[in-house]
Amino acid sequence: MSKSPMGSFEIPTEMRNMAEQSVVQARQAFDGFMSAAQKAVADTENRAATAQANVKGAGEKMMSFAEQNVSTSFEFAQRLVRAKDVDEMMRLQRDFLNSQMQTLSEQAKELGQAAGQAAKGATDPKRR
Fold first, then answer.
1. Has residue 58 got a pLDDT over 90?
2. If we measure between CA atoms, which residue out of 64, 70, 50, 71 comes closest to residue 124?
3. Per the domain annotation, does 46 fall within a domain?
4. Using one digit for the tens of pLDDT, what is the confidence trace for 9-18?
5. For the chain, how far is it from start to end, CA to CA, in angstroms?
6. Residue 128 has pLDDT above 50, yes or no
């Protein structure tokens, strides 16, 4: 059997300790990176879930408003066909338009507030 040209070279203890410490530090750095990555993924999932819930809520609100507006329009149409003369028809039309403008304004304001809260909730770091 031939011997290695280096003979029985021993790695100095200091060098082994330094290498071991480097591996420990690399492992700690990797663990820290993985922890940060997992937190980032969880935060993204939470924001996506919040956004999805807000979109669903806004959709439900819009459907409710649409249903309310169609129902109000049918009620107006029933009153209109029962009108006794043109003056009553004009009054009903004026009252309906005024009421609808007020209702639509309130609905738009409510949807705007909901959208603002949804946007704030999705970007607010305190909610993450």
1. no
2. 50
3. yes
4. 888 899 889 9
5. 66
6. no
- Over residues 78-93, the mean pLDDT reads 94
Domain count within the chain: 1
CA distance 109 to 101: 12
Q: Is residue 1 part of a domain?
A: no
Task: Give me the amino acid identity at 25.
Answer: Q
- Give residue 30's domain range: 16-127
The string of pLDDT tens digits covering residues 27-51 is: 999 999 999 999 999 999 998 888 8
Q: Would residue 4 count as lying in a domain?
A: no
Instruction: Tell me whether residue 3 is in a domain.
Output: no
| Angle of helix 86-123 versus helix 13-81 axis, rounded to 10 | 180
Single-letter code of the amino acid located at 113:
Q
